[in-house]
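I am writing to request your help with a piece of structural work I have in hand. Here, with my thanks, is the record as I have it:
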Amino acid sequence: MAPKGPGLTGPPLLSLADRMDKVGDALEEVLSKALSQRTITVGVYEAAKLLNVDPDNVVLCLLAADEDDDRDVALQIHFTLIQAFCCENDINILRVSNPGRLAELLLLETDASPASSEGAEQPPDLHCVLVTNPHSSQWKDPALSQLICFCRESRYMDQWVPVINLPER
């Protein structure tokens, strides 16, 4: 029998893997809704501009990097500055460890063949993605609430930027 929550009367506690899967699913749902509502900003530079102008409407900051990006000193400096700004302005932050899956969710192409990339645009900068609150109404979104609770719980455990691995589909 699965262990129960406090007082042994609550719902069964989820394993860490199950909990992370639920958070990954919630993130997918939030991104899907934000994309349809056009409340997403993609790119480190674009994110910095928005954070400078309108930080109060940013509800979530995603920092995406793979193993190769971890060796990019300039990118890590950008991440540090963005994280500090988000912490100071009470913006929830998540780190996404698989930018390719994030690109799929945002309907962006990441795998252009070398032959077709000549003269083509640069691939989008997915290292920072901001989700903003729509101005028309306050979000009462259970998936967003789940992400915010996860971020808050992580901060209580001194994990200021929790890492999420988006599930492959």
